[in-house]
Amino acid sequence: MPENGKISIRQFTILVMLVTIGDSILILPSISSSFAKQDTWISGIIGLLVGLIAVYIFSALGNLYPKLTLIQAIQKILGKWFGTLVAALFLLFPLITIVTFTREMGDFITTEMMAETPTLAIQILFTCIVIFAVRLGLEVFARTGEIFLPCIILLFLLLVIFLIPQAEFEKLLPILENGIKPVIHGSFSFIAYPFLELVVFLMIFPYINQVRLIRKGFLQGALLGGLVLIILVVISILVLGADETARTIYPSYSLARRISIGLFFERVEAMVALLWMLTIFMKSTFYFYVFNLGLAQLLKLKGYRMLTLPTGFLIIVLSPIISPNITYYNNLLAEYLPYYDVTCYLLFPVFLLVIHFIKNRFKSSPDT
Amino acid sequence: MKRMGLLLCICILLAVSVTGCWSRRELNDLAIAVGLGIDKVGDKYKVSVQVVEPSEVAGNKSSGVAPVTMYQATANSLLEALRKMTTISPRKIYIAHLRIVVISEALAREGIGDALDFMSRDPEARNDFYVVIAKDAKAIDTLKILTNLERVPAVRLFSSLDTSEKQWAPTMAVKLDKLIADLVSEGRHPVLTGLKVIGDPKIGETKKNVETILSPADLQYSGLAVFRKDKLIGWLSDEEGKAYNFINNNITSTARSVNCPKGGKVTFRVIRSDSKVKGSIRDERPRIDIEVTTEAHVAEVQCSLDLTKPETIKELEKLAERKLIDLIDTTVARVQQDYKVDIFGFGEAIRRSNPKAWKTLKKNWDHTFANIPVNVKVHYKIQQLGKVSNSFLEEMKEQKTE
């Protein structure tokens, strides 16, 4: 076993919540509202409902083999050779996703804060911290999540409460101006980025203390994270308006810039930016952990820690390669990546479940 | 030992790499721009910035130098101009602390859209400055006038716009995001407040302007500029500006007088005002209902009125209502006839209430707007009389007749 630690159900729930918020808090309002306009909050609710169903499916898959990680479960369900092949393919998904996070982090900081710093410098530093956290193991960064949670909640409340005076409720009107179609379109990314990407939690099911409570914790975490995202979308539309939310690349940062209480509490955006830096850090760390753990299990290694440095280099090298410029990247996020997520993160587990049940029927039918 | 060495190496590496000083800028390398003026010369932008003179603004000592200095440059784009200024300025122009952006009327008539993109794109620029139009003047000239009370003229322009909007209400303090939202909206055209130089600008540019009690030259906000998309097409007067603010629920406080029934005037101080603009489609025709609820106190009486009687208050309410309705009616009618652009956001109101009908209406909205029926309703509530009930004028007159 490459991992010997165990985390409690509370830590698991917090981790799910933070990963749900993840990078979505930064990029999602803009992508979703470019389709759904002022109805993005409806997209958010649709996204949350569908997302919870997806989480339910994931936990159903996880509960079939509570003692095995997803990689091991794949090998068990699909057989040794085919299973190994599919598991290797599966490991590509978290890899691509971490690369996008690193890219987002670099892009965000060079766009909004440090224009002249090379993106690569930020990405290297960021990846260093992620490698460091992953080397310390699951228990440690689960506890990190627990410690950061009050800070994240505080920053989020700060962002929302201080902006309420600037909210204009008529910006939500008219509801369903262009019918339901754009709302559904806007909900794709709302389903994909926060919720479908949670499938990687199947990799840590064996390391959770109370197996019975996993499903509840999983759903709770996703629900809390989803609510945070919906509140953020609502406040961006109330304060910035649908047009500006869609036009701004990082609406959350624009929101933070708006905070101004009595002309003395203002210009706090760099502080508020800590909010998504923390959640993106948690999400990247978790994905990076999953990637290394999966790779170690696939290669039948005793530990995953020796993999972290080379895979870290891989990420730093890949993040400039994934897209040549920000327009390409934003296009990727808005138009293509949600469908990629649906294929890899939703259809794939469903496919595994179906194979499992077909196999079971074949196995059990001769007995009866 | 080996471990210690490794740790030391890591520490040194980190110390070099995480200091965050890649693009550091010290405060004394920056020229903090507080005002920005944009003019057009040919097809180039002439950009002028008002930069604070740090030693003059900090503390109480002043050495007699002007509190701000100005740099100007002409180039194809705003950023080019700002960067070109470094050939004159010893420091890089830093625009994060902008208070006011002045755009010349001539440029506004050609269209302000192109000049605004830089402001919304540049990560340094924030959204907390106001945009105004220099009326009958070049933007650069308005930024040259020295001012009293607030030593930095751009700060004074900022505060003055803020205060006049809140206390007198003929002006609109428009920030960039609101301006852009109006520019892209299909059911509303933007307005911006006008800024003019009064008095003698020649003296206004010299130290003399702040040496006398009555400044020979000063800056004054006057009127609202009416835009069709991003092109200025005309002006509203201060009184019409007030009507605009009444319609758009932008009144914090103002003062308004009405004629007394038997001659003379009585003035009210408006304490609160709330307005709702409702759009609807009746008999397949769009119509607008404006409902204004205003709370006011009697502030100044210059005629004979018996304020101890409830009927008088009722009568005054009627008079004030009538006058406000007239003001709003004539303003709307003038905009409909003279400018034919929907600056009041009536289109937005229809879009919100009936998105389906709006889809067909929006294609020809400005034309429809010019003929749309507008129904104004005002509820004027007079609640307080100030420190006295009947005016001493009343008694004075009685003594005379005796």
UniProtKB/TrEMBL annotation, chain A:
Topological type in the membrane: Multi-pass membrane protein
NCBIfam families membership: 2A0309
Protein's name in the database: Spore germination protein KB
Keyword RNA-binding: no
InterPro entries: Spore_GerAB
Subcellular localization(s) per the UniProt record: Membrane
Keywords: Germination, Membrane, Transmembrane, Transmembrane helix, Transport
Segments traversing the membrane: 12-35, 41-65, 77-100, 120-138, 147-164, 184-205, 217-242, 273-295, 307-327, 339-358
Family statement: Belongs to the amino acid-polyamine-organocation (APC) superfamily. Spore germination protein (SGP) (TC 2.A.3.9) family.
Main location: membrane
Keyword 4Fe-4S appears in the UniProt entry: no
From TrEMBL, chain B:
UniProt entry keywords in alphabetical sequence: Germination, Lipoprotein, Membrane, Palmitate, Signal
Membrane topology (UniProt): Lipid-anchor
InterPro entries: GerAC_N, Spore_GerAC-like, Spore_GerAC-like_C, Spore_GerAC_C_sf
Main localization, broad class: membrane
Pfam families xref list: Spore_GerAC, Spore_GerAC_N
Location of the Spore germination protein N-terminal domain: 24-196
UniProt domain Spore germination GerAC-like C-terminal: residue ranges: 222-386
Localization (cell): Membrane
Similarity comment: family membership: Belongs to the GerABKC lipoprotein family.
Name of protein: Spore germination protein KC
